[in-house]
Amino acid sequence: MPTTNASEKRTNFFQDVYEVVKLIPPGRVTSYGAIAAYLGAKGSARMVGWALIASHAQHGIPAYRVVNRNGLLTGKQHFESSHAMQAHLEREGIQIKDDQVVDFDKLFWDPAKELL
């Protein structure tokens, strides 16, 4: 039986994260933890964050649609400028106030419910 090393597991997890993030509809947001839970890795929200940091080298992954569990733009420092994440979200009609998504509960997209 072939074994999978830690690097392969991480790469596969990152790819799984990217596939979920690509499904987040414009104008909606989700959280690192919601993605981790959907992928069966509850408690691995930071690993989702690491995957999204690594995603900036790829095209077509809307990492800006992923925020923390309270709707805060905690990943904004990993974009091309400190205002880029907010600008991307605002272009999709999402209002941001003090680095937080306004109406977060209304705009929250839960992959566990949406991707049945």
From TrEMBL:
Keyword terms, alphabetized: DNA damage
Entry superkingdom: Bacteria
Cell cycle found in the keyword field: no
A matching Pfam family: DNA_binding_1
Biological process according to GO: DNA repair
The Methylated-DNA-[protein]-cysteine S-methyltransferase DNA binding domain, residue ranges: 12-94
Recorded GO MF terms: catalytic activity
Protein's name in the database: MGMT family protein
